[in-house]
C-alpha cells in the first residue's frame, strides 16, 4: 500500500524541463535534470494566484496586513482558551498552537523581508515582523498566560502524566517567560520590556552598520591600487577585506580602512553589550553569557572557555608551525616586506594549498554541475533514510522569483515529509549569503489530527546557467550546498509533536551538527564518485583530485582553527562580566592571548563581527558542532557512508527530536557514550592530521 502511494505521488508530480545545452552524454534523474535546466514555466494568465508559499492572502503585499490581523485575532482567542483551561497536556498543546499561529506569519515575513525582489513585499513583511515581534514581547510578560503554565508545572501529579517531549516543551515555554522577566514585579517587568525593545533597535542598527563600506579620499592612497576598489566621486569605497588579493598593499589598505573605527557604531556596540548585561542581571543571571547558554550542550561560559583554552593548548605547536609556513611563503614572494600581519594568512595559506595540491577551482567545476550535485544528495538521502527529492512545478504566485525550484521530500513508506524551496541563484538585492529559513514548522495539529508538514527555504548565491553550460559549482559551493541541505533534512526528518521544537529549533551548538556532518559526506570519494561527472564528457572526477582537495584543507588548518577560537573567546568575554575596558582594548588582549598576530592600531574588527547579533555568546557553536559532527562521522559513517542502519539510527537519535530532548543526550544516544571536553578537542585536532592513504595514492597515481 505504502509503495503504491509513493508511485501515485510520483505520477501526479511529473515535471518537464527545457534543455539548456545540446551535448548530452549523461542521463540525469528527474531531480538532476530539473536543476540542470530552467523549469518550463507554463503561462499563468488564467491561473489563480495562490499566494506566496500557497498562503492565499499573500498574493499581494497588502495581504501581509490581512494575515497579521488574522494571526493576532486567533492569538487572542487562544489566549482566552489557554488562561481558562485546567492544567494538563491541552495547556501545552494550546501554547504551541498559539506560538505556531504567530510563527507561521512571522517566520515567513522574516524571509520575505530579506529575499523578495519586490520592495513593496519587503516593506510589508518588515512591518509584519515589527508588529508580531511587539505582540510576542507582550505575551512573554503576560502574567495570566504564565500562571496557566506554572499551574501545570507546579502540579506534580499532572506533570508526571506528561510524556517527556510535552514536559520539555512546557519547560521551554516557561524558560521564555523567565528570561523575559515574568517573575519580576510590575515595575521591573516594564523595565525588562523596555530593554527588549531597545535591544531590537540596537541589534538592527549594529547589523546594518557592520556591513556598510568605509570610504577614503582617492588622494590618500596610491593611484595604482584605485582600480581594486569601488569609487564614488573623489572617494574610494572599501566594503571588505580583499583577503584573497595577491597585492600586499591592497590587502593592507583594505584592512586598515574597512576596519577603521566608526564612533557611532562603537557607541551602538557598547550600549548593546550594556543592555544585554543589564537585562540578564535583571532576570537573575550572572551575565548575558550565562543566560544565553541555558539549554545548550556547553551549558555554562566556564565550560566554553575551558573548551577554547584546551583546544588552544593542543594546537599551539601546530599553529606556530602554520604561521611560520605562511611567513616563509610571504618572504619568498615579497622578501622586502616579510613581517607576518593579520591581513596575510588567508592569501598566503591559499598560495600554499595551491602550490602543494593544485586545487584550482576551474579544474573541479565541470564535474560539479548543480544538477549532478542535487542528484548526489538525492542518492545519498535515498540510501541513508529512504527519502527522495522530487521536483514539483510551483503554482501561480507561489514563488517570489521564476528561478526558484520547489522540492517535495518523500519517504518510501511515510509518504510526503515536507517541502524545500530552493532559491539558489544570484540576483540584485538578494543577500550574498547561504542560509536556511524555516517557513513553517512541523507539528501534530490537535484540531484536525493531521500532521502539519514543514516548509523551508534554502538560499544560496550561485551563478546562473548559460546557453552552453548548466550552473557549475566550485568545490566550496558544492560543500555549502551539502551544508545547507543538512539543515533542510534536519527540518524534514524530525517528527516532533510541537512546532516550538521542530527541526533546527534546538540548541545553537547542536543545530550546526547535521549541516557540518554533511560536509564530511561531501568530501568522501565514495559519495562524490556517485555524482561528480563532467557535464560534457560524462567522465567521473578522478579520486586523486578529491584526495588533493581534502588534504589541501588541512594546510594551515591549525591557524584557521585558532582564528575561530579567537573570535569565540572574544564573543564570550564581551558577554561575560563587564571588563571596565573598551571593546577595542578587550579585542587587543584576546587577540594577543588566542591568536598571536599583532593588533593594528586604529582598527576595530569587532565592529564587523555581525555574528554578535544572532550568535551572541554562542559563536563557539561552530567549533563544538564540528567536533561532534567529526565524532559522529568517524564512529558511525566513515566505514560506510551509505549504511542504512546508521542512517536510521542517526535520524532516530539526533534528527527526530528537534529541540525536544537535551542536546547532549541526543549525542550520547548516537555515540553510545557522552563525549568529554577532551574528546571534543581530540576530534578537532585529529581532523587536521594528514591522511596517510592520500600520500600513498598520490605517489602511485
TrEMBL record:
It comes from the Eukaryota. This is Uncharacterized protein.
Amino acid at each position: 500500500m505504502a509503495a503504491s502511494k509513493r508511485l501515485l505521488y510520483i505520477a501526479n508530480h511529473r515535471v518537464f524541463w527545457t534543455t539548456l545545452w545540446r551535448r548530452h552524454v549523461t542521463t540525469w534523474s528527474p531531480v538532476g535534470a530539473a536543476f540542470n535546466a530552467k523549469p518550463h514555466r507554463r503561462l499563468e494568465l488564467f491561473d489563480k494566484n495562490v499566494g506566496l508559499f500557497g498562503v492565499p492572502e499573500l498574493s499581494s503585499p497588502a495581504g501581509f496586513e490581512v494575515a497579521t490581523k488574522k494571526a493576532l485575532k486567533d492569538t487572542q482567542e487562544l489566549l482566552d482558551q489557554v488562561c481558562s483551561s485546567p492544567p494538563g497536556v491541552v495547556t501545552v498543546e494550546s501554547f504551541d498552537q498559539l506560538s505556531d499561529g504567530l510563527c507561521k506569519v512571522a517566520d515567513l515575513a522574516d524571509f520575505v523581508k530579506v529575499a523578495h525582489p519586490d520592495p513593496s513585499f519587503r516593506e510589508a513583511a518588515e512591518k509584519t515582523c515589527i508588529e508580531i515581534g511587539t505582540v510576542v514581547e507582550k505575551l512573554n510578560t503576560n502574567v495570566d498566560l504564565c500562571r496557566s503554565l506554572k499551574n501545570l508545572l507546579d502540579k506534580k501529579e499532572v506533570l508526571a502524566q506528561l510524556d517527556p517531549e510535552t514536559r520539555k516543551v512546557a519547560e521551554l515555554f516557561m524558560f521564555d517567560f523567565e528570561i523575559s522577566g515574568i517573575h519580576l514585579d510590575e515595575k521591573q517587568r516594564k523595565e525588562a520590556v523596555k530593554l527588549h525593545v531597545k535591544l531590537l533597535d540596537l541589534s538592527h542598527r549594529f547589523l546594518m552598520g557592520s556591513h556598510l563600506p568605509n570610504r577614503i579620499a582617492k588622494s590618500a592612497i596610491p593611484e595604482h591600487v584605485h582600480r581594486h576598489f569601488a569609487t564614488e566621486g573623489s572617494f574610494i569605497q572599501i566594503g571588505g577585506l580583499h583577503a584573497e588579493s595577491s597585492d600586499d598593499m591592497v590587502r593592507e589598505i583594505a584592512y586598515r580602512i574597512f576596519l577603521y573605527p566608526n564612533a557611532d557604531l562603537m557607541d551602538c556596540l557598547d550600549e548593546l553589550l550594556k543592555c544585554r548585561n543589564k537585562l540578564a542581571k535583571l532576570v537573575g543571571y550572572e551575565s548575558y553569557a550565562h543566560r544565553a547558554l541555558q539549554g545548550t550542550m556547553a551549558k555554562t561560559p566556564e565550560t566554553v572557555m575551558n573548551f577554547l583554552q584546551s583546544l588552544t593548548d593542543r594546537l599551539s605547536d601546530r599553529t606556530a608551525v602554520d604561521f611560520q609556513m605562511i611567513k616563509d611563503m610571504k618572504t619568498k614572494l615579497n622578501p622586502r616586506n616579510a613581517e607576518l600581519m593579520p591581513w596575510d594568512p588567508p592569501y598566503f595559506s591559499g598560495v600554499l594549498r595551491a602550490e602543494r595540491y593544485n586545487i584550482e577551482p576551474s579544474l573541479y567545476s565541470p564535474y560539479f554541475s548543480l544538477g549532478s550535485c542535487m542528484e548526489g544528495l538525492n542518492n545519498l538521502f535515498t540510501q541513508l533514510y529512504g527519502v527522495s527529492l522530487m521536483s514539483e512545478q510551483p503554482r501561480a504566485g507561489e514563488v517570489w522569483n521564476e528561478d526558484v525550484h520547489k522540492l517535495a521530500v518523500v519517504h518510501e513508506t511515510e509518504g510526503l515529509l515536507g517541502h524545500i524551496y530552493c532559491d539558489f541563484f544570484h540576483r540584485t538585492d538578494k543577500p550574498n549569503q547561504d542560509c536556511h529559513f524555516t517557513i513553517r514548522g512541523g507539528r501534530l495539529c490537535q484540531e484536525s489530527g493531521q500532521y502539519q508538514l514543514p516548509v523551508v527555504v534554502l538560499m544560496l548565491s550561485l551563478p546562473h546557467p548559460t546557453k552552453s553550460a548548466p550552473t557549475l559549482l566550485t568545490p566550496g559551493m558544492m560543500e555549502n550546498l551539502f551544508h545547507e541541505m543538512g539543515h533542510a533534512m534536519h527540518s524534514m526528518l524530525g517528527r516532533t509533536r510541537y512546532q516550538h521544537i521542530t527541526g533546527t529549533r534546538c540548541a545553537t551548538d547542536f543545530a550546526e551538527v547535521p549541516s557540518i556532518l554533511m560536509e564530511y559526506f561531501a568530501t568522501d570519494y565514495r559519495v562524490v564518485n556517485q555524482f561528480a561527472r563532467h557535464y560534457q564528457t560524462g567522465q567521473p572526477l578522478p579520486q586523486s583530485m578529491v584526495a588533493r582537495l581534502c588534504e589541501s584543507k588541512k594546510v594551515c588548518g591549525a591557524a584557521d582553527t585558532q582564528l575561530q577560537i579567537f573570535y569565540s573567546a572574544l564573543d564570550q568575554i564581551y558577554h561575560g562580566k563587564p571588563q571596565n575596558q573598551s571593546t577595542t582594548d578587550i579585542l587587543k588582549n584576546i587577540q594577543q592571548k588566542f591568536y598571536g598576530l599583532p593588533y593594528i592600531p586604529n582598527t576595530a574588527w569587532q565592529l564587523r563581527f555581525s555574528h554578535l547579533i544572532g550568535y551572541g555568546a554562542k559563536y563557539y557553536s561552530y567549533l563544538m558542532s564540528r567536533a561532534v559532527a567529526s565524532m559522529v562521522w568517524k564512529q558511525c559513517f566513515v566505514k560506510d557512508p551509505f549504511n542504512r542502519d546508521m542512517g536510521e539510527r542517526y535520524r532516530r537519535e539526533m534528527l527526530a527530536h528537534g529541540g525536544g530532548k537535551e542536546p547532549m543526550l541526543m549525542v550520547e544516544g548516537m555515540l553510545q557514550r557522552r563525549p568529554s571536553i577532551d574528546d571534543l578537542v581530540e576530534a578537532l585536532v585529529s581532523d587536521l592530521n594528514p591522511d596517510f592513504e592520500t600520500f600513498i595514492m598520490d605517489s602511485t597515481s
